[in-house]
Automatic annotation (TrEMBL):
Family indicated by similarity: Belongs to the LysR transcriptional regulatory family.
Record key words, sorted: DNA-binding
UniProt name for this protein: DNA-binding transcriptional LysR family regulator
Top-rank taxon, per record: Bacteria
HTH lysR-type domain location: 1-34
InterPro entries for this protein: LysR-type_TF_proteobact-type, LysR_HTH_N, WH-like_DNA-bd_sf, WH_DNA-bd_sf
Length: 259
């Protein structure tokens, strides 16, 4: 915090006097939170998170044409984008591009990202978000052989996602050889012959060492939506990258849906 110990001690003491409770149990060489201290810490945590968000929000409103264009997407989509990073970089110039692969839905309003590629369903409505469907991405099971007896399963509970539930159903009567959540690592494991893995079709179909064990259909074909906060549209680099992404998905439509 850049503060000296005496300064922190005085401020903690002042806070205790204001609240009328002891926040710490003080020992000769220790300082432990009391029950009241733990309760106050829990109540104050959202305040800290809100304070940390302030610089991000302010930066999002600060006109800076050279600021990086930050794209957030799942690992499957991010890996696909990485194959076309030069094209996306060309669209962003003179700004840089930054990729944020995560399944967590980053807050565009808080400035956590500039462009989000989200899958399956249209994001919850907000007048400040501009949303357009740019394509689809399909998934299937891939292995070294057409009839694999082992499966590389995701680590999460099958009830938590459609993909995990699909793999769990496919694995019935087969051996679970490993549980791997990271998609690129799961792909490499499937290439070694460890077992069948759930992969995006654009990746599995492009590898001559893998065969498609199941056909993509129904819930295995997901819509992809491009989401931008209205504030970010004023940045030309963001708009150019958004257009480039839409063009990219249109040009590779057949590969993305397993065609």
């Amino acid at each position: 915090m850049g503060l000296s110990q005496p300064t922190v001690a005085r401020r903690v003491k002042a806070l205790e006097e204001t609240l009328g409770v002891s926040l710490f149990q003080r020992g000769p060489n220790s300082l432990d939170l009391t029950e009241a201290g733990r309760a106050v810490l829990e109540a104050a945590s959202p305040m800290a998170e809100a304070a940390n968000a302030v610089p991000r929000v302010a930066a999002a409103y600060r006109p800076d044409p050279s600021a990086p264009v930050r794209i957030t997407a799942t690992a499957s989509v991010s890996l696909f984008l990485s194959l076309h990073a030069a094209e996306i970089h060309e669209a962003a110039q003179p700004a840089e591009t930054a990729y944020i692969p995560t399944r967590r839905k980053l807050d565009l309003a808080a400035g956590e990202a500039d462009i989000a590629l989200r899958m399956r369903t249209l994001p919850d409505g907000s007048d400040d978000l501009v949303v357009r469907r740019i394509g689809q991405i399909a998934f299937a099971m891939y292995a070294r052989t057409p009839d694999p007896q082992a499966v590389i399963a995701p680590p999460e509970d099958p009830t938590l996602s459609r993909q995990a539930a699909y793999v769990a159903e496919f694995a019935k009567g087969r051996t679970i050889s490993a549980r791997i959540g990271d998609m690129p690592i799961r792909y490499q494991a499937a290439r070694t012959g460890l077992g069948a893995a759930f992969l995006p079709c654009w990746l599995g179909d492009s590898d001559p060492d893998l065969v498609q064990v199941t056909r993509p259909q129904g819930d295995l074909i997901e819509d992809v939506f491009l989401v931008i906060h209205r504030r970010s549209r004023s940045r030309e680099s963001v708009q150019r990258v958004a257009d480039a992404l839409a063009t990219l998905f249109k040009r590779h439509r057949k590969a993305l849906v397993g065609g």
